[in-house]
Design goal:
The chain is α/β, with parallel strands linked by helices and 282 residues long. The chain has 11 helices and 9 strands. The protein has a 6-stranded parallel sheet with strand order 1-4-3-2-5-6, sandwiched between helices. Helix 10 runs antiparallel to helix 11. The longest helix is centred in the middle third of the chain and has 16 residues. The structure holds adenosine-5'-triphosphate (ATP), pantoate and beta-alanine.
Length: 282
Amino acid sequence: MEILETAAALQTLTETWRREGRRIGFVPTMGALHEGHLQLVRTAAAENDVVVVSIFVNPTQFNNADDFKFYPRTLESDAALLQGTGATVIFAPSVEQMYPRPSVVRFDFGPLERVMEGAKRPGHFNGVATVVSKLFHLSRPHQAYFGQKDWQQVAVVQQLLADLSFDLKLVSCPTIREEDGLAMSSRNRRLRPEARAVAPRLYEALQLTAAALREGLSPGEAQQQGAEWLQQFPDIELEYLEVADAQTLQPAWAGPSAEQPLVICLAAWLGGVRLIDNVLVE
Ligand SMILES: Nc1ncnc2c1ncn2[C@@H]1O[C@H](COP(=O)(O)OP(=O)(O)OP(=O)(O)O)[C@@H](O)[C@H]1O
Ligand SMILES: CC(C)(CO)[C@@H](O)C(=O)[O-]
Ligand code: BAL
């Protein structure tokens, strides 16, 4: 499995693949790979002829300098993990390759990014949309694979595809969890043991909130119950826990229905590490 480091090299390769009529799957990542990423790659390999996996810690989507600085970078072990998953090529560019000059185009996703991750991480989705657009142009995928752990990101990228008429399909894949329920995340490896021990409570809080909704509590009441339950864990500093329409991500006013599935999303700090998770309530 080759590692390409320049935009030109990837473009040449994907141009050839397109000419040969090969179906291209694409999995964008920021590296520090875990089983969640590997599942995306395996799915992409099963549904396409060739698979590009990008590994790039994208500076423009970080609004916190320390988060960017301490984001794990483990290219060598990532390449080893990808062996046998069906990845054809790794694209691991430098910042200069991706941003030969500072980008000035700005994306505004309206109400979609005025909530949750968009509200708490100003500029985050502009950075995601910028880099994802560039990566789509370079990898020329027929299908791109994203994880539902980043539910809002999937909604934003769907909007991006529609607004800019990208000719590719977004495939969103289920969240892969540790045995104790914690959503796999590259940032988990930065958790200190005390924080790691309490981290599964995040998923438990989401499940409790989902159960409250199913029992007939209003979204507001269920949300409050989930947030209050988390208060018993002093190592968890909740940033938000929100019950939202699963499509529009706007705050939900009624319980789940066939027409309006809901998503419960949260973000929390555990000893300096910020984690997110969500569950769908249909
Ligand atoms: N546990 C998971 N299950 C399924 N997909 C996942 C999981 N974790 C991440 N992904 C997906 O992998 C892709 C790359 O994500 P990324 O490299 O940011 O990993 P990450 O583990 O989410 O890291 P972090 O949350 O610490 O930034 C995204 O589409 C993301 O949604
Ligand atoms: C899609 C992505 C690779 C863009 O940098 C990133 O936001 C991520 O890892 O989810
Ligand atoms: N998985 C989302 C990337 C980020 O947190 O910046």
